[in-house]
Structures are given as structure tokens and as C-alpha cells.
Amino acid sequence: MSPNGTNGTHASTIRPLKPGIYAPIPSFFLPESEDLDIPSFETHVVRVATAGVGPVLAGSMGEAIHLSHDERVTSITTARKALDDAGLVNVPIIAGIGAGSTRESINLANEAAAAGADYAIAIASGYFAGALAGNKQALKAFWQEVSSKSPIPVMIYNYPGASGGINLDSDLITELAIECPNICGVKLTCGDVGKLTRVAATISDPMFSSLHPRTNENAPFLVLGGFSDFLLPSAYSNGHGAITGLANVAPHAISKLFELCEASMVDSSVLPEAQRLQGIVGRADATIAKASISGTKYLLQKLYGYGGHPRRPLPPIEPGAGEALWEHSHTQALVSLEQELRGKVR
């Protein structure tokens, strides 16, 4: 049962979900105890939000699989307070509710809402992927039940790499969008631009919102990429932005790219600059993504003085590999762009 008895319209959901850039925030850990490093987490959440990037907590980058329920709640309450204290009261929080069972995901949705999350994002567990991957009805039932029982709107998270190869097709995602009014979007970390185009074509139909209204009017169905290397083609396919790990490293650069992508559709003179930035961002995304969570944390340590290691058993990046990642021309081009853009807003 939702806290106020109405699914999808929890009292905390007053911050509209808008097209744009969101970052899956890492969880930071103290080096000896592996307890949550709260000061670094607070600093980072405010850093990305100040650049116009929304926080997504307890996702893959946030090592949700390594967090207890209490730690997830702590992350949400900490982020909300840090944002509010920084004057960023209108920035929404999306919280991961991925778990081993449908029941636990629903429990996590209720806990997230009570802690101050505005939206949730749910991935299907890969533990029984052998039984689920080819079973469309079972997969559909998961998001149907979670969204219908969640007190806050729920986003679909499609990431085959973190769910044992489970990869939703565009037909299933579209059916869920049509049939589940408390589903507020999809994150496509499959990187399938064709799939994004097909889903976005349905959502962007002028009749979609009137025929299939959302439970919460602040939560439209957003079609988001899981990387920032196809933001420009996504914009021209009626996509709505991305939830991208690269926005942790270069939030100003990714925000600016999204802004230019949107602007280029009404002013063609902006397109060459959007293409230039997309090239820098796209090359960096491909290079940095290969180093995964540990590589992102290494770069944060180099850039901002915090980052640290993942929680065991996930290993840190080898020092030589980390330095090579930092010195790579694609990384340095992104860092230069980020520093340039950050300087302009000071």
C-alpha cells in the first residue's frame, strides 16, 4: 500500500520529471571500513545538480547490489537534504529499486518514497535470466506489478549487461508504456538507437498523452538513452535525453550538449557546434565506459579529490590502467571541454 493510498501520486512527487541529462550517482566508501562516505556523496550530488544534471541513486553505477536497504534510504535522505540546503529544492531524485524479487522491488519503492525520492527506476533481476529472458509475459508482469503498487512513478531500466542478458524489445516497452499509467519512462542502456527511435515514435504521437494519460501529471513517459554518445541522433528521433555515467565526470559538457541538440532542431546554425561536442563526448563515452565503475571513480579522484574504490569484491582499476585512462586523448579532450564550460558559468 502506498503511504497516501494513491499509487504514483505520493506527496513527495512535486518535482516534475523533465527531459534532460541525469547521472547515475556513484556510492562512495571510506577506504578502511567501506562504510558510506557521506561528505563525498553530498559534494558530488550538489556538483552535478548545479550543472543541470539530475541525480539517479542506487543504480548500477551506484553499486546498488552492494547496498543494504538502510544504506539506500540513507543515500536518498542525504541527497535530498544536500540539494535542499544548496537551494536546489526543485531537483527531483530518481531512486533505483532493483532487487532479486518483485516483492522486494515493491518494498524498496515504498522505502524510497518515504525517504524523499520522487521517482523510481526498476531493473529485472538477472539471477534467473535463463527462465525470464525468453518469457515476455513474466517480464511484462514484473513492471506491471511494481508500477501498480509503487507510491511513486516507475521507470523501466533496460540493461542487458546488469540483468543476465535480459533485453526488452521495443514492442514490450511500448506495451508497458500504453498499459501502465504509473510508468514514467525507460532508460535504454542497451545502446540500441533503433529501439529508442521506435519507442519514441509511439510516445511522441500527439494522441499518446490523451489516450494514455499518466497517473501523475508531473511524470510523462521519457525515452532516455543510457549513454551520451548518441544524444544528437536521439534528439532528432524525439528522445528525451539520457541517464549517463559520463555526466558524473563532465556534467557541464553533457548538459551543454543536450542543450545544443535541442536548440539545433529549431535553429540549424547551432547544429555544427552540437556535432562538434557530440564527437568529443561520444569518443570519451566509449573510452571511459570500458573502465566501468572503477574507472569513473578513478577519474573523479583525479578531477575532484574524491572517488575511491568500489566495494569488494568489485576491484579497483589497476594504477597503470587508471593513468592510461586519464591520459587518453579522448579523456583529456572531454576534461578540457568541461573546464572551459564550467569556467563560463562561474
Keywords:
346 residues, 15 helices, 48% helix
Structure description:
- By secondary structure, the protein is an alpha/beta fold.
- The chain contains 15 helices and eight strands.
- It has helices spanning 38-50, 69-85, 102-115, 129-132, 136-149, 170-179, 193-203, 208-211, 231-235, 246-249, 251-264, 271-289, 292-304, 319-327, 329-344; strands spanning 20-24, 54-57, 94-96, 119-122, 154-158, 183-188, 222-225, 241-243.
- The chain has an eight-stranded parallel β-sheet.
- Strand 1 (20-24), helix 1 and strand 2 (54-57) form a beta-alpha-beta unit.
- The chain is globular, with a radius of gyration of 19 Å.
- The termini are far apart.
- Mean pLDDT is 95; it is low at 1-5.
What is the structure about, briefly put?
The protein has helices at residues 38-50, 69-85, 102-115, 129-132, 136-149, 170-179, 193-203, 208-211, 231-235, 246-249, 251-264, 271-289, 292-304, 319-327, 329-344; strands at 20-24, 54-57, 94-96, 119-122, 154-158, 183-188, 222-225, 241-243.
Contiguous low-pLDDT stretches (5 residues minimum) are 1-5
Q: Return the structural class.
A: alpha/beta
Radius of gyration: 19 Å
| Overall geometric form | globular
Tally the helices: what do you get?
15
Name the average pLDDT: 95
Amount of beta strand: 5-15%
Physical arrangement of strands within the biggest beta sheet: 7-6-5-4-3-2-1-8
